[in-house]
Write a structure and sequence with these properties.
The protein is built from six helices and ten strands. It has a single domain, classed as 3-Layer(aba) Sandwich (Rossmann fold). It is an alpha/beta fold and 188 residues long. The strands form two sheets. The protein has an eight-stranded mixed β-sheet, with helices on both faces.
């Protein structure tokens, strides 16, 4: 048997190190869980601060559909967050979006940054449609997303592109814009 450092075997030291680091792993895990909770809350709240153009809903009582692509844990969190709630008098519904799915009937669409190919496909498919696109990476924001989550001062914040929202004929309330970290104005 191999013995090192005061006669203890290397497995002992690895186990001790893992035990010491366990709180850090738990904190990192809860941080990502907290981030999902905050993103879900933002997605829910965004629904109440956006005005969609005439014809965006099939019926007066049609739900606001929030699509989530490539982020199943966020979709689960969002389902819990919106359960039983409404925005602007409309019920809220979550739909998981996969590659090739139609965006018909989707009003808000979240696309994570790590899914760049999917992001490009979905942002292209939604261009000009009345779909509020939300991402969480500079690359995807640059591809044409309307809202982008960012970490600033250890807090989850968001930035808004009014140019891309205008192309989709969406109106974002001044209250929501005042809460944004940055707002990219429409040129011209």
């Amino acid at each position: 048997m191999v013995r090192t450092l005061q006669g203890r075997c290397p497995v002992f030291w690895v186990a001790l190190l893992l035990a010491a680091l366990m709180p850090l792993f738990a904190h990192a895990q809860s941080g990502s869980s907290l981030e999902r909770q905050v993103k879900a809350a933002y997605l829910y709240k965004f629904a109440g601060f956006v005005e969609w153009p005439e014809g965006s809903f099939t019926r007066p009582d049609a739900p606001i559909v929030i699509g989530v692509a490539g982020a199943d844990l966020l979709a689960e969190q969002l389902e819990q967050t919106v359960a039983g709630h409404t925005a602007n008098g409309r019920p809220l519904q979550v739909r998981r979006i996969k590659r090739g799915d139609s965006l018909a009937g989707v009003h808000i669409l979240f696309i994570p940054a790590q899914e760049k190919a999917l992001a490009q496909e979905l942002l292209t498919a939604s261009r000009g449609q009345p779909v509020l696109t939300v991402t969480d990476g500079d690359d995807t924001f640059g591809m044409g997303s309307m809202i982008n989550f960012v970490i600033a001062d250890e807090r989850l914040r968001f930035e808004v592109s009014l140019k891309h929202a205008a192309v989709a004929r969406l109106k974002i309330s001044a209250r929501m814009l005042s809460a944004a970290l940055r707002v990219q104005q429409v040129a011209g």
